[in-house]
């Protein structure tokens, strides 16, 4: 069930029922009030765009229709759009304005393998569809689009110096597209980068994430008959198993908050044939990128030792790697104040019924009314790390960066689930998307109007990063795996 771009307008009446009521905000900055009013007015348009990307459900590096739809909207709004940046066909950078400050807004739009379910409160597979928006990136990209266009309108009306730049970032889920953009220097002149993510709560805490290295380790041996001539063989699978054994012994002697996990992707064809080829796929994570580098070196040593011990050869291909997120309390507090101004998500009776049915499927004890709340700001969370990884981490080491989450999913919902996919395709997700668009636009407005806020954020960023930091990505000179 895919709708062509020209059909967006036909979706508007269907989604108009979900239009949220404007929040009454006394004594609010007139520019901010104008942005909030305009985004409310255009809610149905952006809801339809997000639903269309949800229908496309394109996996990383193949988001051709989704990327084209966002680019078309930006071009119509007067942005200059550069396509296929950093060697990725679906990556783009859209720019409006000139001069400082340059505010970057990140946009994602890739789906996940599996998880193709209809937007209903029970699992309803969609026949013939391979992918689903289980992380809500259809909402992510659309909210960023809406915020960028609002800022463009304000810059144009004011006739002032300043640049808004939207980064169309592909393959966050399976390809770390932003790492290639950072490596290409596309963020070098940006003063602040803003991002958000769909989730089940409204929060702007300045947490970090885990740095990650992902690699395939391939062993080559010599095939032989396992019964008639085993002495002639050298088992590649033995190499994999010897490596895994050594890595598992190593777990006792690495920091307890490190994460190492693997799957054997190729172990041989038949028991009576000594495997000439075997492969194991590794992930390693830690909240400190340099500690992760040292752990990874030991994993590589285990692979080389396993090859020597089993008489095989080994090749290690780094497939991906991201830095931990560098938190910025200054920026996050500004985001929080604007998120609190915008407020949480209020369900209609139909949405509340949907949400309650969804909550029952989750066996969650979290109240669906939690979607209305904005979590209290906790600056101490900058010392903690969420047990996930994202390519936004590399962006945060290239430019002061802040992000937040909104309740696009029913409270208690896990990402990468059929429940998150379903909510991302209907009005609950779309309302959370609108909160995100408003929050990003208001925060960027503060940054344009208050140069001292940017300077304070940059000072904190330099203090955390180190003045002599030199960026060297985990992926080296690897080309984007667009195939």
Automatic annotation (TrEMBL):
GO molecular function: dipeptidase activity; para-aminobenzoyl-glutamate hydrolase activity
Span of domain Peptidase M20 dimerisation: 212-307
Keyword set includes Cytoplasm: no
Keywords linked to the UniProt accession: Hydrolase
A UniProt-annotated Pfam family: Peptidase_M20
One GO-annotated biological process of the protein: folic acid catabolic process
Record lineage: Bacteria, Pseudomonadati, Bacteroidota, Cytophagia, Cytophagales
NCBIfam families: amidohydrolases
Entry's Gene Ontology cellular component terms: cytoplasm
Organism: Spirosoma arboris
Protein name as it appears in the record: Amidohydrolase
Domain of life per record: Bacteria
Coiled-coil features, chain-numbered ranges: none
């Amino acid at each position: 069930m895919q709708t062509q771009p020209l059909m967006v307008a036909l979706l508007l009446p269907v989604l108009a029922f979900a239009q949220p009521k404007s929040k009454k905000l006394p004594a609010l900055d007139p520019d901010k009030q104008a942005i909030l009013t305009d985004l409310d007015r255009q809610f149905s348009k952006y809801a339809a765009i997000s639903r269309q990307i949800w229908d496309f459900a394109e996996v990383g590096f193949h988001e051709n229709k989704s990327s084209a739809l966002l680019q078309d909207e930006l071009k119509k709004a007067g942005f200059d759009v550069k396509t296929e940046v950093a060697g990725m066909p679906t990556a783009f950078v859209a720019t409006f304005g000139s001069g400082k400050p340059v505010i970057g807004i990140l946009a994602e739009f890739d789906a996940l393998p599996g998880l193709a379910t209809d937007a209903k409160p029970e699992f309803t597979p969609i026949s013939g569809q391979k992918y689903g928006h289980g992380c809500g990136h259809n909402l992510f990209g659309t909210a960023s689009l809406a915020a960028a266009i609002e800022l463009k309108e304000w810059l144009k009306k004011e006739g002032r110096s300043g640049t808004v730049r939207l980064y169309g970032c592909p393959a966050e889920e399976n390809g770390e597209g932003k790492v290639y953009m950072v490596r290409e220097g596309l963020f070098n002149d940006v003063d602040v980068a803003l991002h958000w993510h769909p989730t089940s709560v409204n929060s702007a805490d300045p947490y970090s994430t885990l740095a990650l290295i992902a690699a395939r380790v391939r062993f080559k041996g010599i095939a032989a008959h396992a019964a008639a001539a085993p002495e002639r063989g050298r088992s590649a699978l033995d190499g994999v198993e010897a490596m895994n054994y050594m890595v598992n012994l190593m777990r006792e002697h690495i920091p307890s908050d490190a994460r190492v996990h693997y799957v054997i992707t190729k172990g041989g064809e038949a028991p009576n044939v000594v495997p000439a080829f075997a492969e194991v796929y590794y992930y390693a994570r830690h909240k400190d990128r340099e500690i992760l580098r040292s752990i990874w070196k030991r994993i590589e040593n285990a692979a080389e030792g396993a090859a020597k011990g089993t008489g095989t050869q080994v090749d290690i291909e780094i497939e991906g790697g991201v830095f931990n997120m560098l938190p910025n309390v200054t920026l996050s507090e500004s985001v929080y104040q604007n998120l609190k101004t915008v407020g949480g998500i209020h369900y209609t009776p139909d949405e509340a019924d949907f949400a309650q049915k969804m909550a029952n499927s989750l066996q969650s004890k979290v109240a669906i009314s939690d979607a209305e709340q904005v979590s209290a700001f906790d600056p101490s969370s900058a010392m903690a790390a969420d047990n996930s990884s994202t390519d936004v981490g590399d962006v945060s080491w290239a430019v002061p960066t802040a992000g937040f989450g909104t309740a696009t999913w029913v409270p208690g919902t896990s990402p990468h689930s059929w429940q998150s996919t379903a909510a991302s395709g209907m009005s609950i997700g779309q309302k959370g998307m609108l909160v995100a668009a408003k929050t990003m636009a208001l925060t960027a407005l503060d940054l344009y109007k208050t140069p001292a806020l940017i300077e304070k954020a940059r000072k904190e960023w330099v203090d955390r990063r180190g003045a002599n930091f030199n960026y060297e990505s985990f992926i080296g000179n690897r080309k984007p795996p667009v195939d």
